[in-house]
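Researcher: Structure for this, please.
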Amino acid sequence: MNQFIAHSLPFLLDRSTLRDALFTLFLLIGIISIRAAIRSSILHRSDLSVEIKRRWLVTLRNIALGFFVLGIILIWGNEIQAFAVSLIAVAAALVLATKEVILCMLGSIYRTSSHVYEVGDRIEIAGIKGQVLDINLISTTLVESSRAEHHKGTVGRGIKIPNSMLFGNPVYNETMMGNFAIQTIHINVARNADWELAETVLLNCGREIISEYMDQLAQHTKEISSDYVMDTPLQEPRVRLILDEIEFIGLQLQLPAPLGLRSQIEQRVLRDFLRKVPIHPAA
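Model: Predicted structure, token format:
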């Protein structure tokens, strides 16, 4: 029997291999058990919001994966080293073949070290805009922004982007500075229209909307000014005039708006504007 094992499965008689296999098994069982316990504890926390729970679960999964990979490297280090030395040429070919995967992993390291974005942030990269739903070593999952545009038939889709895109594209993080952003609403009126009336209506609409969350905006402004040592962000609506078109006068209403309500605020302003300002044909 021993001769059969020695001839067919010689690695079973290698004590170091058996020891490493047992350590690997113990490592796997330990990580799975600890992760399950922590995951259950997070899910049963009633004082945490769904957003925070999802963020913690994603972080827990990535940490568990990192510990497993590190443990495998430590346990099988000698075998991995011997294998790598004997397959240098193959390793070089694999590096070339898996260049994109390596770039994705490096992009994940870059994202983590520079805090580009986290789960729950609203970002835009390479024209893709949405809320971060999941992050792993290879890709980032977004839920497409719910803001409808005239050239789009659907919104709210799930999008997976490779982390390698972080090296070649700027990332716009709307939530890095808090839960408010400057919303700009564009309206064109005819040259012969009463643009002063239009400006007054837009300013009044903006002031009425801001009054509904003025306390939260004031607290947000205070935190931003303190944490980032910057000038006080915009707290009052303002209207800019644009004269780029011959037939129209462009008005841009700028006001601070909560991130999740910008689309509703825009529609509310447009409807109020149409009710209060008469429509004139272009001159």
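Researcher: Any notable elements?
Model: The CA atoms of residues 46 and 53 lie 10 Å apart. The chain is about 50% helix and 20% strand.
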